[in-house]
Write a structure and sequence with these properties.
This protein is α+β, with helices and mostly antiparallel strands. The chain has 17 helices and ten strands. It is elongated.
């Protein structure tokens, strides 16, 4: 315990001394976090604090080797420790470079994967999980589980670093509880490493708490996330893996929750999944009217409670552990609801999204039925058959009136056309009824026969039974669509006009999508018929 306490004090002192120096270097060489829309500060602040955190951690461990105690002597250069520190150097370096010269998310993610892979190669891997008598061997997927664990914690600390003192404070609390767990298991080396991490965070917090004079930047958040991920695996190698992994999961509950939910939230809202926004937990709290300090203290309090629950759960071996996890889960749901996150996952929105998805994929019966009509239109051998099939599709869409103006001539023969009145104006396009009497639309009732072969550039007209084209066309509740029929060569083949009385029946959420499918099918069929004309 003396060695653990000594390393904590040394790292605290070093962090307090090095942080101002890191701030001056950041200001001198341009590593400044400038005010932006999603930022809480109003003046440029150096984001070079990660250098102080990293150096305080490394120097403390170097000094601890001089203690020559049973604990410090365990810090030997065995394989897993060497590769752990190589991984730390990788994530710290890429984070530091990003603090001075911005990198793309893809590049940063790539190096996170490299660093996690280095740790896995060195023996820091999650092969087995056991808790409350339940065990799970990961086997060949152990690499991907380990990779996910490292990347999750690295980005969890990085994303929560949005308010003054938040990331450093949460990491400090998590490290304290992991120190306690390590001591209870007699894993004093892991306890010493976590004590060093806690001291560096506490010293840095002196300058990072609101109002902050320095930020840790990506170099600091990447280092802290990687360190917690690696040390928690290292501490679980000789103990119950489930218990060891559960501690950081609960202690870092808020940043982990935010990291998992953020890309889902952005995906649901149609935004880039890894694009920064102001929808994180801390932003939500501030948006509810809390000051930055109050928001941070609330998250501190929640983190402290989660740490206490984590210690309790790990040290009991009966059904009470499961009960506490259920209570924690219920509290998390209530917290999410209070922050307004459920507005992204409301049942009506999710139902509409899944309905759209199933309809677009063709799983719904209605979509498959309409697809059958599209196929029938595409297989039409003449203009009359095309219009007959198109009108069946229009009727299925519950439209009330349609007219198609063909700009090119087609040879038409057959019967079954429903004529317009011989007098008056066509209510859709203004054409005289007598001019368009030769070839009209299809109705449910047989109409005027067309004898012989007829080359025409006419209008095809259709109305739903019960719709009065003379009077109903002037209603204010009509949805009117004008769809140009343009082929791939930008040639105008014609125009399709559609009308729907919304007082009679509202359109469904997929009507307009199917109208576009119909338009494209009609264009393709017209092109085919044009090629078949002599």
């Amino acid at each position: 315990m003396t060695t653990i306490l000594a390393t904590f004090i040394i790292s605290l002192i070093l962090s307090l001394a090095l942080t101002p120096l890191a701030g001056r270097l950041g200001t001198r060489f341009g590593a400044l976090d400038k005010p932006q829309e999603r930022k809480a500060h109003i003046r440029p602040i150096p984001r070079s604090g990660g250098m102080a955190i990293f150096l305080a951690f490394i120097l403390t461990l170097a000094i601890s080797t001089l203690f020559m105690t049973d604990v410090s002597n365990k810090l030997i250069l065995e394989k897993k420790i060497v590769f752990f520190f190589i991984g730390i150097l990788i994530v710290f370096a890429v984070g530091l470079f990003d603090d001075f010269h911005r990198l793309s998310p893809i590049v940063k993610f790539f190096f996170q994967v490299i660093a996690a892979s280095v740790a896995f190669y060195g023996g820091l891997r999650i092969d087995f999980f056991s808790f409350l008598g339940l065990g799970l061997h990961f086997g060949v997927v152990s690499y991907f589980v380990t990779l996910f664990w490292f990347i999750l914690l690295i980005n969890a600390i990085n994303l929560i670093d949005g308010l003054d003192g938040l990331a450093a404070g949460i990491t400090f609390f998590a490290s304290l509880v992991l120190i306690i767990l390590s001591v209870l298991r007699n894993e004093y080396l892991i306890g010493m490493l976590f004590a060093t991490l806690a001291g560096t965070c506490l010293g840095f917090l002196r300058y990072n708490f609101n109002p902050a004079s320095i930020f840790m930047g990506d170099s600091g958040s990447y280092f802290l996330g990687y360190a917690i991920a690696g040390l928690s695996i290292m501490g679980s190698i000789k103990s119950q893996v489930g218990a060891a992994m559960l501690i950081p999961v609960l202690a870092l509950g808020i940043p982990l929750f935010d990291t998992i939910l953020s890309p889902i939230r952005r995906f649901v809202r149609g935004r880039k999944m890894f694009h920064p926004d102001k929808g994180h937990v801390h932003h939500r709290l501030v948006g509810m009217g809390l000051t930055t300090k109050k928001a941070v203290w609330i998250i501190y309090a929640i983190t402290f409670c989660l740490c206490a629950i984590a210690i309790f759960v790990v040290n009991i071996r009966d059904e009470r552990a499961g009960l506490f996890l259920i209570v924690v889960g219920a509290g998390a749901v209530a917290f999410i609801q209070k922050l307004g996150y459920f507005e992204y996952f409301a049942s009506d929105k999710l139902y509409g999204w899944f309905k759209d998805l199933s309809d677009e994929a063709g799983f719904s019966h209605d979509r498959r039925s309409f697809l059958n009509l599209q196929i029938a239109i595409g297989e039409s051998e003449d203009l009359e058959e095309l219009w007959l099939n198109a009108c069946r599709a229009l009727e299925k869409l519950k439209l009330d009136m349609a007219e198609m103006d063909i700009k090119t001539g087609f040879r038409v023969q057959g019967s079954g056309f429903k004529g317009l009145p011989s007098e008056g104006m066509n209510p859709l396009s203004g054409m005289d009824g007598r001019e368009s009497k030769k070839l009209k639309g299809v109705g449910n009732n047989p109409g005027t026969k067309i004898e012989g072969n007829l080359r025409c550039k006419e209008k095809l007209f259709w109305t739903r039974d019960g719709f009065d084209s003379s009077n109903d066309i002037y209603k204010e509740s009509l949805l009117k669509l004008e769809l140009p029929l343009i082929d791939n060569g930008n040639k105008m083949l014609g125009t399709l006009w559609l009308i729907k009385d919304l007082n009679t029946d509202s359109i469904s959420h997929y009507t307009l999508r199917r109208v576009e499918h119909l338009r494209r099918t009609v264009i393709g069929t017209l092109e085919k018929l044009m090629k078949s004309e002599p």
